[in-house]
Specification:
This protein is 34% helix and 19% strand. The strands form four sheets. A three-stranded antiparallel β-sheet has the order 5-6-7. A two-stranded antiparallel sheet has the order 1-2. It has a two-stranded antiparallel sheet with strand order 3-4. The protein is an alpha+beta fold. It folds into three domains: 8-42, no CATH class; 47-76, no CATH class; 82-194, Alpha-Beta Complex (Homing Intron 3 (I-Ppo) Encoded Endonuclease, Chain A).
Amino acid sequence: MKTTEKQEVGTCLNCSDEFVYYPSQSVGKYCSVECNTEDMKGKKKKRIEKTCPNCNQKFKSLESENRKYCGIECYEESRNCINYYLEDQNNYEIVKDNRKTVSVHQLIAIAKGEPAKKVFDSKYSVHHKNGMKIDNRPENIEVLSIEEHGRIDAKKKTNRYSQKDILKIFIEIEEKFDIKLTNQEKLSKIKSLES
């Protein structure tokens, strides 16, 4: 069977000789496999320095590699790790592993008996009764429709809390999650509640 494809002329990147090739079978960079191999040996692949997110050690990796971790041990360790963060972009507490991020108030609602399907449904919202996003006590959490949540929030005036109330909640968070919050984290939370 004869091909009707037109041949093209290319210049070898290694030896600079001209050669004929079929565009459907070659990219037209090298005149032979030997020239391709020889040219590739001469090119050194660029390595860049990265920082392992698990152990914070610096390591070198090929620029073309999408490698995050310094080794398999750090990769495996990070997959089994669940991190607790004090806030996300909306000032909610979140729990995060490498696959998912979930708000703590959503987890509390599920623990109270609300169906997970309802909690994560875009038609519903988990509401903090007292308006404090960091107060995730079960008695302060309820699941409402988006419309009902909007009506309640529209009626509310901005709540002002005493430092004593806020510190009591911080102590509860520290005990519940076995963490110690820095004063800076506490102050940033208090400021976010006041604005």
